[in-house]
Design brief:
With 485 residues, the chain is an alpha/beta fold. The chain contains 13 helices and twelve strands.
Length: 485
């Protein structure tokens, strides 16, 4: 249950979010049905910036060369608090919400199968609630709300940090969906380097004169074989995985160009760089063996995610003040049916806030917010808008994302986020504790972006796929706009 003994500013933001639960849900549902892939989140970013602008935020669009990236600011002076999250979907995951079996909205189309739609709702709603409290109680400071495109491809935030968007930030908060109300501190995610390897050769007829060709696809295949052998010698915490983006056009024409997209992961930025450098050596060897040339283009490169103890303590207090939503019997039954269908532990929705965990155990996945977390103290608000235990990037991960479970969890997340902001604005010592614990946590490590200097974002990524599916997806768009009162 929520804490009833609250400061006036805290009661104000909690009441504001609760009163505007419909607007919170409208943002989340709208972004869910937009279902936009990374770098093509035109409708999603448009709705978010339009909503923030209507509330008095000054919006800068297209930051760091990202057409669907933005920074919305309100207030002035210190502390400067940055909120940031993602809102992209995944390919081939168009799952109907509220169904406990695989059912497409748009056959083979993109869709949300993790919950970034709810991330967007929580960030925007929490920012608006905090802004209203700043006006009501005269709280001084600056809010910066960052929209981060292409998280599933680990793209945008390293560019933001490299380009100085976080230079004046005191503390940062990332919100992310999950199956519980929680926060942690310590290293949570791995570093990663993601790159295209394009092999180029020469075409020939595959049956009449194959000896005249230099097969680019052979280069891709030989690199794959080399990486398979290298895996034996990787440290247990390292990862490498790939998809072939271009393998040629037709079997009887030996391809002159072929491209494979690799992602290399490790617990540290240096470790990810080491795996990537070995991948480049293997690619060069594959090119030599296939008599081709290889070009390597880094698309993204991210540091591991680190969350700060001082901010985790503030967030935890707000999680406990908000409390877990009261789930109905129908919501619990849906959750268990979905868990059963996904063949995971069938224990329903969580009913208690998770205790503060830290230092937590680092995991293999990556998130491009990692670069932010080595630049400034960063905390994470975890909120319960999805069903526990279900796998993300799977149809089951999308089944609850526009249901009452998602709506209630997003309200809890927005309250927690807004309450945390109010605490940081009204209690300067909390910001100072975040900074002091951050200095202890990073020690002698000096942050330096992994992305190459001068690199520009891949703005055309996923464009063709969205152009293919967007017309049929439009008929499912939410018609109304969020209205905060």
């Amino acid at each position: 249950m929520a804490d009833s003994n609250l400061a006036p500013e805290k009661s104000f933001v909690f009441d504001f979010v609760e009163r505007n639960a419909d607007a919170v849900a409208t943002i989340g549902d709208s972004v869910f049905y937009f279902g936009e892939l990374g770098m093509q989140e035109v409708e999603s970013a448009g709705l978010m910036t339009e909503t923030l602008e209507k509330e008095g935020f000054k919006v800068e669009r297209g930051i760091s060369g990202f057409p669907t990236g933005f920074c919305a600011s309100y207030g002035s002076g210190e502390p400067v608090i940055a909120l940031h999250t993602e809102y992209d979907a995944n390919p081939n995951n168009s799952q109907a919400s509220g169904k406990t079996e695989k059912r497409d909205i748009t056959p083979y189309g993109p869709g949300h199968c993790e919950g970034h739609n709810c991330n967007a709702a929580v960030m925007v709603s929490g920012a608006i609630a905090a802004k209203r409290a700043m006006d009501e109680f005269g709280l001084k400071g600056t809010l910066k709300v960052f929209g981060a495109p292409g998280e599933e491809q680990l793209i945008s935030r390293p560019y933001y940090v490299r380009d100085g968007w976080f230079d004046d930030v005191d503390v940062a908060i990332h919100d992310h969906i999950g199956g519980d109300m929680s926060t942690v501190y310590g290293l949570t995610h791995s570093a990663a380097v993601s790159a295209y390897f394009t092999f180029r050769g020469e075409t020939a007829h595959a049956s009449t004169a194959p000896w005249r060709a230099r097969d680019a696809l052979d280069g891709v295949v030989l690199m794959d074989m080399g990486m398979a052998q290298f895996r034996e010698h990787m440290e247990p915490t390292m990862r490498a995985h790939r998809v072939i983006k271009d393998g040629g056009d037709q079997p009887n024409t030996i391809p002159a160009k072929a491209t494979v997209w690799w992602t290399f992961r490790a617990p540290t930025a240096e470790g990810a760089r080491v795996v990537f450098e070995q991948g480049k050596k293997i690619a060069e060897g594959a090119a030599m063996m296939s008599n081709t040339e290889v070009e390597v283009v880094v698309m993204s490169a991210v540091w591991p995610v680190r969350t700060n103890q001082g901010l985790a303590e503030v967030i935890q207090g707000n999680l406990e003040s908000v409390g877990v939503p009261e789930w109905t019997e129908e919501e619990q039954a849906f959750a268990k049916d979905l868990q059963d269908a996904a063949d995971v532990t069938t224990d329903g929705l969580k009913t208690e806030v998770k205790p503060l965990l830290g230092p937590t155990e680092q995991r293999a996945p990556s998130n491009d917010c990692g670069d932010v977390s080595w630049k400034v103290p960063m905390g994470r608000v975890g909120f319960p808008s999805n069903v526990p235990n279900v796998p993300f990037h799977h149809w089951a991960g999308g089944a609850a994302l526009a249901t009452s479970i998602a709506h209630k969890g997003s309200v809890a997340g927005a309250k927690t986020l807004a309450g945390t902001i109010v605490d940081l604005l009204s209690q300067p010592d909390l910001v100072e504790r975040a900074k002091s614990t951050f200095a202890e946590e990073i020690g002698e490590v000096v942050y330096k972006p992994l992305i190459p200097e001068g690199q520009r974002p891949p703005v055309d990524l996923n464009r063709e796929m969205m152009e293919q599916f967007r017309p049929s997806m439009r008929e499912h768009y939410v018609k109304n706009k969020p209205e905060f009162i």
